[in-house]
Amino acid sequence: VDHAHDIRNEYVLSVTGTIRARPAETINSELPTGSIEIGDASVEIISRAEPPPFQIDGRVEVDETIRIRHRYLDLRNSRMQRNLRSRSAINASIRRAMDAQEFVEVETPMLIASTPEGARDFVVPSRLSPGNFYALP
User: Fold this and answer.
1) Could you tell me if 11 and 49 are in contact, meaning their C-beta atoms sit under 8 angstroms apart?
2) What is the dihedral of CA 50, 54, 59, 65, to 10 degrees?
3) In contact, 136 and 122? CB cutoff 8 Å
4) 124-125-128 Cα angle (round to 5)
5) What is the pTM of this model?
6) 41 — phi, psi (to 5°)?
7) Distance between CA 124 and CA 132 in Å, rounded?
8) Mind listing the pLDDT tens digit of every residue in the chain (137 residues)?
9) How far apart are CA 127 and CA 96, in angstroms?
10) Separation of alpha carbons 84 and 76, rounded Å
11) Roughly how many angstroms between the first and final C-alpha of the chain, as a whole number?
12) Cβ neighbours of residue 114 under 8 Å, at least 6 residues apart?
């Protein structure tokens, strides 16, 4: 593997070789694949990629505005995944409890004051205040 120092985490690779058990002194129990290695490997870089704007592994604290701008990357962070799973479990628990008591969940749109940020709003004119509008979020 002559160009191993050129390979980055974001690259797509084709690796060909023989999978074998690592020698006992090189086993890394911190990694899921820490007990195996690929011998006689040949590596081909299929696709290069730009480095992400921040480390995804969560070891470095990143400004929230950068995380929000790159939300699709931030959601790969284990802390964010844990938070989403917790939120989902809490919501599911509440729904089960309410369902057991025969509550019915009804979703209705909310009318809010329109803001210039984000996607285009679905604008609704006010009947009581001509010339004023509300937006569906």
Assistant:
1) yes
2) -160
3) yes
4) 130
5) 0.54
6) -85, 145
7) 9
8) 566 788 988 899 999 999 999 999 999 999 999 999 999 989 999 999 998 898 888 778 889 999 999 999 999 988 999 999 999 999 999 999 999 999 999 887 776 666 666 666 677 888 888 888 877 76
9) 39
10) 11
11) 53
12) 121, 123, 133, 134, 135
Where would I find the beta strands (DSSP E) of the chain? 12-21, 36-47, 122-125, 133-136
Q: DSSP letters of 115-131?
A: -SSSSPPEEEE-SSSTT
Chain position carrying tokens 């990694």: 31
Which pair of tokens denotes residue 86?
């917790």
Q: Are 111 and 98 in contact (CB under 8 A)?
A: no
What are the structure tokens assigned to 124, written together?
Answer: 């609704």
CA dihedral 35, 38, 40, 41 (to 10 degrees): -150
The C-alpha atoms of residue 29 and residue 36 are separated, in whole angstroms, by 11
State how far Cα 67 lies from the chain centre.
10
| Residue 42 neighbours by CB distance under 10 Å | 11
